[in-house]
Every structure is written in structure tokens, then in C-alpha cells.
Amino acid sequence: MPIHDLTAPAEARTHLPVVIIGAGQAGMSASWHLCKAGIEHVVLERNTRFHAWKNQRWDSFCLVTPNWQCRLPGFPYSGDDPDGFMLKDEIVNYVEAFAESFDAPLREGVTVTRVVRDAAGRIEVDTDDGLWSADHVIVASGGYDRPITPSFAAGLDPSITQLHTRDYTGPDDIPEGRCLVVGTGQSGVQLMEDLHIAGRDVSLAVGPAPRSPRQYRGRDATEWLHAMGYYDITIDQTPDPKATEAKTNHYMSGRDGGHEIDLRRFAKGGLPLYGSVTGVDGTQISFAPDLEKNLDDADKSYVGIREMIDAYIAREGIDAPVEPPFEKVWRPETEITEIDAAQEGITSVLWCIGFRPDYSWLQLDCLDPNGRPVHRRGVCQDPGVYFLGLGWLNTWGSGRFLSVGEDAEHVTGVILARLDQTGRDCRYG
């Protein structure tokens, strides 16, 4: 891809007050607010808008949070099932309808190759379709650029198919035989369940992800947490912001009306569970002896949420049905630390251990030594640089439909306060 000459005269470049990189819900939310304020800008998207929702979700994908939490700017969920969980196509319809509700200055199929300051201090956005200059740049490209696969995966016998979450659309993608799903974040447990429901032979390597109740004492757990003000807690109000930011999401499901996922029940029904994968050598797969600990930790989180809800109900004097205490229906008798995949009939491994962002093109002073964004509610110390759409950018809902619009409003508000507000020609409707 071309790298353009930053010594070219500034007047030869396309200059705008704001350039937004990424046309997912975060970037488009920022555009909505800028359009409303009449601030000229452009949204650059390397694929098509909402590409990830359209092309990087499996067929049975659905929201884990209820539809009422879909609150994009000026476009809250208005369907007839606020307590339901939209399926993939319904999510796409929702975000597309949001995009059609205003006239975003969107340029699709444009890849940003470099963002840097020129000698005069202007922010330059280099793309495969020309060079842009901006007073402010909003990075809304998300954190799902690079699927994480452990380096030792290269040692797996080539007869065993390896896939990542991003490669999976449905059970037909998995060859005959047993599939070892690795990881128990929201994707891992849902893909395990997807294969299990389809009657496929599946086993699961259980990581340290926490889990959550779905329905508890007459209401969805997310309704209780919303009423308790949990979703209003900012990252600065948490005991350890760095630890909060690094936390894995609690697993549960919105499938078929929503339910919780208790891995012990799957194990009791015969589904093999192992601890965290630590290495592979040909057909030999090694696991840490941490299965019981990981299950216990997940249950501790589950019970902790129930206890929070119990305390809230008691404090507020709410009349709610009482439920029996949680019981562990299964525990591992031994910790299996090594298996032979061939002997176990494992013909595929599905890696569900997350993604990493790729900011190699972002050559500004806004990343820490590990390449992670440094900001305060999306606003960087490097003047004119902002982030949107990251998990815990400000609250739990920052990377979700629930609060991404609020974060976009905050960031664009900072920009408006800094801009010389002239030359507004962005239409808002």
C-alpha cells in the first residue's frame, strides 16, 4: 500500500476538522454526533460499515445482553421484544437502520496505512486512497484485528484441523470427529454449545473466565444490575482499573430466549472437560491441572452476582421470589494433564481465546509500551487523538450498544469545545 510524502504542500491534501477511522457502531455513533453538530468530517472504513457484524459472526450468533440495552444515538431499540436477544441478521438490520437514519460522510473500502504528525504538527492520515489531514482523529477500529492463537499451536499434528472463532460459521465447518474447543469466554462456551446442540462430538478446555446468572429471582440478571447502578460505575471507580480493563466477560447465552451456562452440567452429561491448554506436540495435548479451580472461580463469580442481587432486594424491600442456593452438580475426580488427540478421536481444535488489536499504523504518542491505548474516557494526552469502542473505555457498556453512544457524545463534545466551529457542511437528518 502506498505511503505518501508528508512533505507535500499542506494545501494539496484533503483537510477536515475530524477523521474517524472505523465504521462500526463506535465510529458511526461519533459520526452521528458530529453530523448533529454540523461538523465536517469523514468516516474511513477498510471494508464496509458494520463489517464485523455481517461477516465475522457465526450463523447462530445472538446478543448476550437483552435488546433494551441497544441504545445507539437517537436510535434505541424499538421492536416488540425488548427482553429478547437479537439474532445475527436482526443485529445487522438494527445497525443498518441506524446508519440510514442520518447521512454519514462514509468512505468504504479505504484502508488507513499510517497516522502520523507532519513537521508542522498536523495529524496526517495516510490511506490507500490518498492522504488526509485533520485537526482531530477518532480511532474506532476496534480490538478484533488479530485472532489469538498460541505459538505452540504450530506443533499440532497437521492432520488435526485448526480454526479460530473468526473462521467458524456453523457446525458444518468442523470435520467429522471430536472437536476440542479451547477457551471459555462468551465465544468459547457458545460455540461449544452450538456444536453440542447439533449433535457433534465436542470437548472443552476450560479457562479462567467468570460466569453469570441469566434469570434470577424473577428478572434477568442484567435488569437487576441496571437497577442497582452497576452499569453506571466508571473504570476510575473500580478498585483496580487495570485489572478491570483486562477482565474477561462473564459467560451466559441469549440463545432461545436466554439461559445460563453451567459447564458442570455438560460434564455430568458426558462432555469431556479439561483445564487450560499449555502445549501441544504432534497429537499430544497438555493441560494445566486447573480445571477444578477454573470451575470454582467461575461459580464464585456466579454466586457473587446472586448475592449482590439478594442484598439489593433486601435493602430496597423488593418483593421477589426466593430461589434455592446454588449447588455444584459435578466435580472432576482427577485432573487430566495430557491426552493423545488421535486416541480421543479429536480431529479439530477450535481456538476461542480472543483477539488483539493492531495499531501498527498508529504512529502517535497515544500507546503504552505494550501497544495499548492510553486515554481518559477516550481522550488522549496527545492533542487531537481519541479512542472509541474499547471495553471499559469508561463503563462496562463502553464497548457495547448500551453505552457506546454516551462515550461518542463525550468524545465529540471535547472535540466541539476545541474546534473553531466554522465551515459546517455535514448534513444531519
Question: Main beta sheet: strand number and arrangement?
Answer: 7 strands, mixed
Weakly predicted, low-confidence segments = 421-429
> Percent range for helical residues?
10-25%
Strand content: 15-25%
Global shape:
globular
The chain-level mean pLDDT equals 94
- Total count of helical runs of at least 4 residues: 10
Q: How many domains make up the coordinates?
A: 2
- The number of distinct β-strands equals 21
What structural category arises from helix and sheet content?
alpha/beta
**Amino- and carboxy-terminal Cα gap:** 36 Å
Our Rg estimate from Cα atoms comes to 23 Å
Structure report:
This protein is an alpha/beta fold and 429 residues long. It has two domains: 10-145 and 357-418, FAD/NAD(P)-binding domain (3-Layer(bba) Sandwich), CATH 3.50.50; 147-351, no CATH class. The protein has ten helices and 21 strands. It has helices at 25-37, 51-55, 88-100, 186-197, 221-227, 241-246, 263-268, 291-316, 341-344, 404-418, and strands at residues 14-21, 41-45, 71-72, 75-76, 106-108, 112-117, 123-127, 130-139, 146-147, 161-164, 178-182, 202-205, 215-216, 219-220, 273-274, 277-281, 284-287, 338-340, 346-351, 355-356, 385-387. The strands form six sheets. Strands 1, 2, 5, 6, 7, 8 and 21 form a seven-stranded mixed β-sheet that branches. Strand 11, helix 4 (186-197) and strand 12 (202-205) form a beta-alpha-beta unit. Helix 1 crosses helix 10. The two termini are 36 Å apart.
